[in-house]
Write a structure and sequence with these properties.
five-stranded parallel beta sheet; globular; six-stranded mixed beta sheet; alpha/beta; 22 helices; Rossmann fold; 2 domains
């Protein structure tokens, strides 16, 4: 990060930021502040023109706002805020090559916590591309937005136009003319001649989705080419159903399983999906393995109610989606992606009051009350799942959020789900859906909360994230 009274430069790593840093130090009106890592030595380097501050060289916009406020500086005080973006293919490969430099490699080796990153750096690039490691830390969108909004004075410059656009933007605040020192101008991705698989491309897209979607949409052409090849192989797609309670999850699973092109089941693979020792893989969804685990849960086209073993193979040949229901999917988005690549999740979300009503039956049988520990646990888990879903959407994961309240007796919601899956509604599905809904146990309408619990809910429940995920405007 570099700044003076007029300009702030947010340094997103592996985007040519060192060139910009050097340039700003030469042309901006002093004093110019260089923000460097806390462990960098700056003794004797500061002058009347250049001042060094120890913090985080690659801090994002949200972090920079907090850091600058400590000195009484607001983001709105700057006439221009700059950030550079680069093609995700180049950023990822550039970071991989950076990890292999002697200085950085030796730094990693000193800390045992870096073992996984170190091992990834020692692998070939195609293996590295499938790993979740990035130069930036935290959420990529935090480099560009404050509370979901891009500051009016923020300008995003693409790496490809760096040497011409930066001088033009800085010219009103320059005290002298100076050639732009564009270092690292090469395109490591093109020079490497690496042919990436769809799994590797999807991984890079996911790691840099915020930039990919907004500034390099042409990258989709590469992905579409690979998908066209895959579609010819008629590979099945992965579909998961999840949510905050098993009751609505099982309801939706049963309904979707009446479709001739969907098979969703549960429990048989639950032990493979724990975050601590996750080991689910594509092999578990092969015909021979999956059919052995779930021999009694397949239905056939002619008779949706028939779950006999003899109809398994017939339905298997027709299905487009195979998957599982699992309440804790939001905890393992990363693990699922790196095991399966592309997948879809239907996530059933409830407003906090419906969830509390539903949970009250389990905790207290007849009384709609909770202990404080039970209550806090429910609120915190609700919050945690909302954060996880939001992060997954920011990474480009295909998460279809469905309100539980919209599912109850509303066949149109099921139609919308099938539209997302690019499937047609089959004739008998509405009757089966409504038949199941008539048997649905009604949720109690009132829940008794103590004053302490009401205050905790008001102060801590992430209603803002819930509203964002369920916004239909």
């Amino acid at each position: 990060m570099v700044f003076n009274k007029d300009v702030l430069f947010i340094h997103l790593g592996k985007t040519g930021g060192m060139s910009v840093t050097k340039y700003l130090g030469k042309v901006l009106k002093p004093p110019v502040y260089y923000v460097v890592s806390k462990d960098e030595k700056t003794d004797g380097l500061s002058t009347d023109k250049i001042k060094y501050l120890h913090w985080n060289r690659h801090g994002n916009l949200v972090e920079a706002q907090e850091f600058l406020l400590e000195s009484g500086i607001k983001l709105s005080d700057f006439k221009l805020i700059l950030i550079i973006v680069r093609n995700p293919f180049q950023m990822d490969l550039s970071f991989y090559k950076h990890l292999k430099t002697k200085r950085y490699y030796e730094t990693l080796a000193k800390n045992s916590l870096n073992e996984k990153l170190l091992n990834a750096a020692l692998s070939d690039y195609k293996s590295f591309a499938k790993q979740p490691f990035t130069h930036y830390k935290g959420n990529l969108k935090d480099y560009f937005e404050i509370e979901g909004k891009k500051p009016a004075n923020l300008k995003v410059v693409k790496f490809e136009t760096l040497s011409t656009e930066i001088p033009e933007l800085i010219e009103p605040f320059s005290i002298k003319n100076c050639p732009f020192p564009h270092e690292n101008k090469s395109d490591p991705y093109k020079e490497s001649n690496i042919e990436l698989s769809i799994q590797e491309i999807l991984s890079i897209k996911r790691k840099y989705f915020w930039i990919w979607k907004r500034y390099y949409p042409e990258n989709e052409n590469v992905l579409n080419d690979r998908n066209a090849i895959l579609s010819k192989r008629l590979e099945k797609k992965y579909l998961f159903i999840s949510g905050w309670d098993k009751f609505p999850i099982k309801r939706l699973t049963t309904t979707l399983n009446f479709h001739s092109q969907i098979v969703i089941e549960s429990e048989g693979y639950d032990h493979l999906m724990k975050k601590e020792n996750f080991c689910l893989s594509k092999i578990h969804f092969s015909e021979d393995k999956f059919c052995q685990v779930y021999p009694d849960y397949f239905n056939c086209n002619e008779n949706p109610g028939n779950y006999s073993q003899s109809n398994i193979l017939k339905k298997w040949e027709n299905i487009q989606y195979v998957g599982l229901n699992y309440p804790g999917i939001d905890r393992i988005f990363n693990e699922l992606f790196f095991a399966l690549g592309s997948f879809k999740v239907i996530y059933i979300i409830m407003n906090i009051f419906s969830l509390l009503n539903l949970k009250s039956r389990k905790f207290s049988n007849t009384k709609s009350t909770f202990t404080d520990d039970e209550f806090v646990k429910i609120i915190n888990r609700w919050n945690h799942s909302l954060v996880n879903i939001t992060k997954a959407l920011d990474c480009g994961d295909e998460v279809i959020c469905v309100c539980y309240e919209d599912l109850l007796g509303n066949f149109n919601t099921l139609i919308q789900i099938l539209n997302h899956l690019e499937l047609k509604v089959e004739d008998y599905m509405q009757g089966e859906y409504l038949k199941k809904e008539q048997k649905t146990l009604k949720i109690p309408q009132n829940i008794e909360l103590t004053l302490l619990q009401k205050n905790y809910l008001e102060c801590n429940a992430r209603i803002d994230l819930y509203d964002k995920l369920t916004f239909k405007g």
